[in-house]
Write a structure and sequence with these properties.
Blueprint (H helix, E strand, L loop, with lengths): L8 E2 H8 L5 H4 L6 H5 L16 E3 L6 E3 L1 E4 L4 E2 L8 H13 L4 E3 L9 H9 L8 E6 L9 H15 L4 E9 L3 H10 L3 H11 L2 E8 L3 H9 L1 H4 L3 E5 L4 H8 L6 H11 L3 E4 L12 H10 L5 H10 L4 E6 L4 H11 L7 H16 L21 H13 L12 H15 L14 H4 L9 H17 L2
Helix pairs in contact: 4-5, 11-16, 14-15, 17-18
């Protein structure tokens, strides 16, 4: 990975990609604006209360950490611009702190390498005691595996964040390239030993790692806990990944195992992907109906956040909140948390998860690690569009279906509304850049999936 990862996103493109409540991708066909459709879940949103945040206690420091953590990887940009909207970032950080959020998570590679700088500007306007900042040693590229380059990245993070110590520091994405990368990035070069010294000196208050991929790496690091004394570990946990992460992607590990192993060691869990890249806000209609029947006034996303926040071993749940609407909705979920009952948990992670697994969608989390594509292809939005049509059973598969002509037209029109023509799958030349550096945490065979979708599109066009 490199600092070119395009994890920033504009308001317009965000609405196209995420389509909160699962409505935006289809709104274009109905003549409804994407923004209006995306905000359907928020029309009756009430103002979240101040002073009601649920906190969890760090067992090492005994400090109170907000259950909602602010993920600074999808920062807002100015409309029709790649420039980050620092004024809006400041406003949302201020609002979050006012409502009890005190955990802010960033990385040197987020937002084209700008996230730490923008986060530092926003947080430096507050007292240092008002927030905890988490960042990562994101030395993914072989050129940055060296000791000097890695240590320089660590010190650069403090400069960008305008701090003289880091509250929560992570080895970033261990497991993505197996044991070889773990040794190359952190062990054989002495970098982890250096970070342990920095923790002992107080410049790192809590040391942990974020995990994707090879379970051998996760198990090894936990087995060495007596040596490293991990203060926390960041894992992917949501109601689909609890039992089905390995079925979604055989490189992933079920969250039930990861969380259970951390509990055995008494290590707090920091949760990423509570919405699975927005997929658990864009659920099939039968899931929406079930959840709305149980809680008509709550958003679909709130169920995922309550699910992720219910386990007592969870320290904080991260959310990449691009807009104020999302921040407010998540605050309502955690100010205070209403834990799920055991019956509600099983409804989600067993019954509904099993039904959704039968959909066989592309396991894209819209993390944008595959971006930017050198040929301009909008990979995450293409996969999001495909998934949405499939889970809503709007795919034009069967010519004998009386709705076939309508579905074919709807698929093509909504694709053109969501993805510009020059960014569609037919522009893929299989250069392999999106996978050459093992960019995708979900191990999606991106060129092959794009080719498959392109063939479908061409077939549907010929039938016009």
């Amino acid at each position: 990975m490199s600092k070119e990862h395009n994890t920033n996103i504009s308001r317009r493109s965000f609405l196209k990609v995420l389509g909160i409540g699962g409505t935006a991708a289809m709104a274009a066909c109905a003549g409804k604006s994407a923004r209006d459709a995306a905000l359907d879940d928020y029309k009756s949103q009430v103002e979240p209360p101040v002073g009601k945040m649920t906190f969890r206690t760090n067992p090492k420091t005994h400090e109170k950490v907000s259950l909602l953590g602010y993920g600074m990887m999808r920062l807002p940009t100015k409309d029709d611009s790649e420039e980050f909207d620092q004024e809006m970032i400041n406003q949302q950080v201020d609002y979050a702190i006012e409502h009890g959020v005190n955990y802010f998570d960033t990385s040197p590679v987020y937002c084209k390498g700008e996230s730490e700088r923008c986060t530092g500007i926003a947080l430096s306007r507050h007292k240092r005691s008002e927030y905890f900042v988490a960042t990562k040693l994101s030395n993914f590229d072989n050129d940055s595996w060296g000791r000097e380059a890695s240590i320089q990245m660590y010190h650069d993070s403090m400069k960008q964040l305008q701090v003289d110590y880091i509250d929560y520091y992570l080895l970033h994405g261990v497991g993505m390239d197996g044991m070889e990368a773990l040794h190359g990035r952190y062990l054989d070069n002495g970098v982890l030993d250096y970070l342990l010294e920095e923790r002992a000196a107080g410049r790192i208050r809590n040391l942990g790692f974020s995990y994707h991929g090879d379970i051998e790496v996760f198990d090894y690091l936990l087995a060495e806990n007596d040596k490293y004394k991990w203060d926390f570990v960041q894992i992917e946990l949501n109601w689909l990944d609890w039992n089905y992460a390995n079925e979604i992607n055989d490189r992933n590990t079920d969250a039930s195992y990861l969380y259970g192993e951390l509990q055995k060691k008494g290590i707090p869990a920091v949760i990423m992907e509570p919405l699975l890249g927005g997929r658990l806000a864009r659920v099939p209609s039968y899931v929406t109906e079930e959840l709305k029947r149980r809680a008509p006034q709550k958003s679909i996303a709130s169920w995922a956040f309550r699910y992720a926040g219910t386990p007592e071993g969870v320290l904080t749940v991260l959310s990449g909140m691009t807009f104020m609407e999302h921040l407010k909705d998540n605050l309502l979920s955690y100010c205070p948390l209403e834990p799920l009952s055991e019956e509600e948990q099983r409804m989600l992670d067993t019954r509904l998860a099993h039904q959704m697994m039968e959909e066989e969608t592309i396991p894209c989390n819209a993390c944008n690690y595959c971006m930017p594509c050198p040929y301009g292809i909008d990979i995450p939005t293409i996969f999001t569009h495909y998934n949405k049509m499939k889970i809503e059973k709007q795919m034009p598969w069967d010519k004998g279906d009386p709705e076939y002509r309508k579905k074919r037209r709807q698929f093509l029109i909504s694709l053109d509304r969501a993805v510009e023509r020059n960014r569609q799958p037919d522009h893929c030349i299989k250069c392999g850049r999106c996978i050459s550096e093992k960019h995708c945490p979900q191990n999606i065979r991106i060129p092959e999936e794009l080719e498959r979708i392109d063939k479908l599109i061409e077939q549907l066009k010929r039938e016009a």
